[in-house]
Design goal:
Chloramphenicol Acetyltransferase; alpha+beta; six-stranded mixed sheet
Length: about 425
Amino acid sequence: MGEPLSAADARILALESDVVRGHALKLLVLDPGEALDLDAVRASVAARLPAFPRGRHVVVDEDGGPAWVDAGEVDLAHHVRRRPAADPAALRATVGQLMSEPLDRARPLWTIDLIGPLADGREALAIRLHHAVADGLTAVRFLESVVLEPHDAPAHEVGIRDPEARPSRWSEWERMPLTLARELGHPGSHSPFDRPITAHRALAFVDVPLAEARAVGAARPEHATVNDVLLAVIAGALRRRLLHHGHVPRLNAQVPVSLHERGEDAAASGNRDSFVDVGLHLHEGDDARRLDLISADTRARKHGHDARALDELFHALAAAGPVGAALRGLADDPREFALAVSNVPGPRVAVSVGGRRVAHVYTSSEPGPRHALRVAAISNDRWLGIGFCVDPEAVPDVELLADAAHDAWEALRA
């Protein structure tokens, strides 16, 4: 008998379709240097994979539903491969192709592709992990355990919660009316990203200096977090692009919130997150004022413990049949949130692969039906790397959206 998937992991697995692949991608861009040795990378991954047990498991169907079982010998020639790319455009095209290809359900649900070397000597590693295997924080544990060279820095505590500080279940239910009013009581306009999607993917990336993002947040009258700054950058980018098309709607962003707790085995805990919905205030023309409005919204949701309350609610509704499904459908409606914007803390110190420093880290999660744009961010010791992923048939010119994010950041920085 295998280990049954958690309800959250099983739900994510069931979302797979001809147009939804179910995986996320982490992209590590290395400083210029001698090309990585593919066999050496495979040997390193093989030696370290036992530290992340889920990386050796496959999903099988059992009488009680999907379950994890040990895969036996893992074929590293399949899971760790090389793909050529000569320039940044070819690199983006390759990762777009990887995001469009399903992972093989008969094997452990991850791959590592060495891409390049580029003409300037840089090289990249594209790591795909199925979302049923790992949420954002758990995926970083995979990087630390299996891919990056070992280091002594402790794991990042951002997103890890103290179990002793958890509010009582009764207090969560007592606050539920206010939580629902904040989270589901302010639907946006018709979303410009509410479009059918295909399996095709296009990606673009932009960097924000992490220390400067912290400084921008600290300089506001009410302290704004790095995540608030990220949301303001995305909102500024959307306003610029939508103004170009002549219409600025009222849009909400769904922001995943980690529910991982200190002391748990993050490498084996799968998906432990909830969400809040935050208005992006696209009507506000001043970038700094928009940041203040977004920051006020996120503070209210933190103080109300909205993410945990919603997690409790949807767990309770999971057994409620059609009623629960209907409310979940309401929460997933494009007017409730036009796009998801996630942010996870990556390596907090300088890290390397094969003796070469990781200069930049990006992440990408795929869009979903009626949500044709997805934004994901990850930090390293120097940068906040932001990845835009779209179906190019529904949202063309994703590079222009990344350019607009750069302009929005420069406006905040000024």
